[in-house]
Amino acid sequence: MIRILSRYIILFVLTLLVLAAMSFSLAYLFPGDVLTNLTGITAQNDIQRNALIKQFRLDSGYLVQFGYYLNELFAGNWGYSFISGLPLRDEIGLALPATIELASYAMLLAIVIGIPVGCYAGLRSYTPADYGINSASMVGYSFPVFWLALLFILVFSLELNIVPLSGRISLLFDIPDKTGFILLDILLADNIDRSLAFKDALQHLLLPTLAISTITTASMIRLTRRSVIDVLNRPYIAAARSRGLSRWQIFFRHILRNALLPILPLMAIQITTLITNAMIVETLFSWPGIGNWLIQAIYQRDYPALRVGMLAVASMVITLTILIDLFNRLIDPSREKYERATV
Amino acid sequence: MNSLPVLLICLATLVGISACSKQKKDGFYQTGIMYCSESNPVNFNPQLDTSATTSDATSHQIYDRLLDFDPDSGTIVPSLATSWSVSDDGLTYTFQLRREVAFHTTDYFTPQRTFNADDVIFSINRWRLPQHPYHQVSGGRYPYFESLGLAENIREVNRINGYRIEILLTQRDSSFLANLATDFSVILSQEYADKLMEDGAPQRLDHYPIGTGPFQFESYRKDHYIRYRAHHNYWGQTEFAERLIYDITPKSSLRLAKLITGECDAIAFPAQTELDIIRNREELELAEKPGLNVGFWAFNTQRPPFDNPNVRRALAYAIDKNTLLEAVYFDSATRARNLLPAASWAYQNDAEDTAYNPVMARKLLKEAGVEAGFTMTIWAMPIERAYNPNAAKMAELIQGYLADVGVNVTIVTYDWTTFRRHLREGLHDSVLIGWSADNGDPDNFFRPLLSCGAIPSGTNRAMWCNKKYDALINEALQTEDLFQRKAIYEQVNSLLFKELPIVPIAHAFRYQAFRKELKGMQINPYGGVRFGGVTKQL
Amino acid sequence: MPQFSLYEEEHHPSPWQRTWREFRASHIAFVGLIVLGVFFFFALFAPLVAPFDPLQQNINALLIPPSWELNGTITHLFGTDALGRDVFSRIIYGCRVTFGTSVLLVIIAMGLGVTIGTVAGMMSGVRSSIVNHLLDALMAIPTLLIAIIIVAVLGTGLVNSMWAITLALTPQFIHYTRTFVRSEMKKEYILASRLDGANAWQLFSHSILPNMIEMLVVQGSVALSIAMIDVSALGFLNLGAQPPLPELGAILADGLDVAYLAPWNVALPGLSIFLIVLAINVVGDGLRSALRKRVSH
């Protein structure tokens, strides 16, 4: 147990270190001035420039510079946006929770719908119902997410006009950013009509969440179904059946647990896809999340923002992946290592 | 068909219907106006920037000017100055100022006094005097005034008493009053500036603005929104909404979508292709007016081979303007022969124009030594403007035309702020851009677009400097006789036709699209939206 | 039958024949294969199939609706876009660019992945575990993020976005190859060839590779559908193919500007991407279940 934990912690720290080094090297790889890429400040004159060079140790070797860079990262000085001049930590602090919020609702929806439907299809494998679900999930899984989102906008917003198509909440509500999660912020805000704001926010959430979760749900269904079918073929199911256990008993005692265990690591892969999809969908729904922010940054060639944004997103995804992997390892020691998706 | 999509659609519809049956009917939604704007303002002081995005977000919302244009007739009317007089030699202007005008009270500033002569002197001296303590704050560039050479022409600004000032000019300038009424000549608070200087944060003046306008600034988040609140002590007698929100939406198709769903009450720059949709929808209104603007293709005349007028002429012959008008403006514009649109009094209807002639173009290029396979860049501005609603599309069309005469084109585009920064540095070969007049005077086209003084201020996109041209347009300002001025401008036109630093393409109509619930929306003749006097009734 | 057979021969279909038989039994998979074949044909012979030049602008034919609508004409089967270009031709060429690029990407990624994976699989110990961990990290980073970084360093363009996607696709090939090679190395037939004196290269090319092909085909189909979606998504976000290059995602993004006037400019390119990806997935799925059935029989 302790060995596993320490191994994972070392792995985690090493990966983050590699990421930080990559992010540092980007300052040199990006076009333009290294100093500007690193700090986000365009020096107005030579005095300021020399002072900055000294401060960021640009006159010393790369290792010293990297050491200072790490130090700054930990201290929370992530530099400034080249375009807006705002501290990047604040900007990311606003954008990242919006993405996490969107992605977690989508994941939640995918689990709530995907696992039961997948189990059902697996139990009824090779029946018409299973074929129906299987082909539907195949269709859902083949949608390019940006096109699906556009179709949703066209149908639900423009034709039926029942849901809004942009942002997290009507801008008329002035919700102070406390946690960065809009639903929590509404509960914490005063001076507003909370139920009205809540309703407004839910309507804004609906389409982007559906667009992302359709694809993840489809993968979820397929993963669960495959896993259930595999478990059904195991000898212990036959044994349980011969002992005279009822269908439901077999399902809850044997199938469900054994089928869900192998799915867990596969969810780690889903998270990467989910975050990518969330980032794409954000640009369509003007969702003020990290994907939208990064894409704006690349359009505006805001190199300092890209440098830190990449670090933030990659660290978040890797942290999640490693956590899931660790969790999986702890509850299922028989599994030797990380496995990958076959959808 | 498939159970999953059906299930999802059912779910969505259920939630939608249950939640939306009385959507947007609530009184809360009536308290604020949502305006979908097209881009981020550079800052909150239009003195520092000629972009319409910045002035739309500030001039008429946060600030007032000494004078204003009447929205219907375009004549000059009192604003913060209640009356004015001009001396017989045209060199002395005296203004009587309005009393009891309150500045905004916000979280970051509480004014101790009302508006007076000191504020006017501060606002003008800031851009006029290089040694003014605030001149260098925020970069020290005042492109509009620089491009007109106004600072050199003002000799003195004197305080006569608390509510009376006098401005002395060096030379007669028949467009002077009009310049004071433009979006850029806003009045700032001297008291606020002094306080910021004391606090050691003078640059906040341009990012946390204080003015006397109908709305006060609340917050701004880049790429997302600008929030304003009503200024309850506003001096004007108009009604206006409690909140004003600019929802920054760069894509015009998305702006229209939001207008249709009611997420925006009004939108900036509807695309020409979408005008019919707006006209056909019952809940939407489209106001239109012939605009004082010009869209053009400017060559960087400081880069070879574009320093050669024959090369410029060849390229002008290579394109078919009528097709561009049809494909890009969808007939919501008239063909431009020179800089001035027909709505201007100095319009010359028999001016010369280049015609589509690829044979001639090839010949001229060959004579100028430009080989087939020559590669140039066309910079296409990334945002829609009335004068060029789709620069990228126009660039693609021109790319096609130039391929016919053996010139390869690379299309370059950046986001708007970066784009203009690089343009000012002169990194382009040619650019598709344009100009909207800030006042009705023809000088407002000729001087900022092509005079030598406008190169450093970044409005002369051709980087073209011609002594004869500058002399002519200066001469035109020496007289109040319109007939005489017009004659001079005709000489300017033929000079421009000979030199072709820019190829004028179109004069577009101006449109304002908004929902029927919005009462009191008007199109200003000289650019700029205005939300004072606009209310929302659901 | 004219030929006379003296001995009763027992016919043993090869594994591939058996797989093919199983595959054909599934109608859906077969239809998917045909659809995929049609798109592949389009991609290969785009200049022959397309009635117009995809870049040719026609000012007299702006935004003509598709032929099945009231105002449509038969000359422009899918109508025209805002520059008067024929949408059908653009989509045909778009298939060529998007689908062709994706196939190329998968082949490159497969080549790279198999090489690195085999080396990692035949080695063991620390180096192999470092490779593994690095791969885990690389795999977890979203493709979009890699693409954004690469575009920032190298500039926009189809080729630059291809780097990003290759980088994202390769790790899974490495992983599967490595796992496969490792488990295979423990088997007796490898030991036998080793005792016969086979060197590492011979082991790989004669013993391991033939057994790996099925796995590669299945993984290749998964990778192909991912590559399709990634290429078009980057094109859509204007980070990949640049106009006027007809790439399905970029065509879709172009159509967004006129989405209300001309919805077919958004619907049809999107539909093509969807159909290709669906066909790939159906075929991949059919292939997997055919293999599974063959093994279980």
CATH top level assignment of the largest domain in chain A: Mainly Alpha
Q: Which spans of chain A of ≥5 residues are poorly predicted at pLDDT below 50?
A: 337-343
- If classified by CATH, what would the architecture of the largest domain in chain A be? Orthogonal Bundle
CATH topology of the largest domain in chain A: MetI-like fold
Shape of chain A: globular
Q: Please identify the oligomeric state.
A: heterotrimer
CATH top level label of the largest domain in chain B = Alpha Beta
Distance between the termini of chain B: 41 Å
CATH evolutionary superfamily of the largest domain in chain A: MetI-like
| CATH homologous superfamily grouping of the largest domain in chain B | Dipeptide-binding Protein, Domain 3
Domain Solute-binding protein family (chain B): 75-454
Family (chain B): Belongs to the bacterial solute-binding protein 5 family.
Keywords (chain B): Signal
InterPro entries (chain B): Peptide/Ni-bd, SBP_5, SBP_5_dom
Topology:
The complex is a heterotrimer of chains A (343), B (538) and C (297).
Chain A: H1 2-29, H2 34-39, H3 46-55, H4 62-75, H5 88-123, H6 128-142, H7 145-159, H8 182-188, H9 194-232, H10 235-242, H11 247-284, H12 290-299, H13 303-331
Helix pairs in contact in A: 1-13, 5-6, 5-9, 5-11, 6-9, 7-9, 7-11, 8-9, 9-11, 10-11, 11-12, 11-13, 12-13
Chain B: H1 3-20, E1 32-37, H2 52-58, E2 67-69, E3 76-78, E4 81-86, E5 92-97, H3 117-128, H4 143-148, H5 150-153, E6 154-161, E7 164-169, H6 176-180, H7 190-199, E8 215-221, E9 225-230, E10 243-248, H8 252-261, E11 266-267, H9 275-280, E12 284-290, E13 293-299, H10 309-318, H11 321-329, E14 333-335, H12 358-367, E15 374-380, H13 391-404, E16 407-412, H14 416-424, E17 430-436, H15 443-450, H16 454-457, H17 467-476, H18 482-499, E18 502-515, E19 518-519, E20 535-536
Parallel strand pairs in B: 1-10, 1-11, 15-16, 15-17
Antiparallel strand pairs in B: 2-3, 4-5, 5-7, 6-7, 8-9, 9-10, 11-18, 12-18, 13-17, 13-18, 14-18, 19-20
Helix pairs in contact in B: 10-12, 15-17, 17-18
Chain C: H1 15-25, H2 27-44, H3 46-49, H4 87-122, H5 126-140, H6 143-154, H7 158-185, H8 188-195, H9 200-236, H10 248-256, H11 264-296
Helix pairs in contact in C: 1-11, 2-4, 2-11, 4-7, 4-9, 4-11, 5-7, 6-7, 7-9, 9-10, 9-11, 10-11
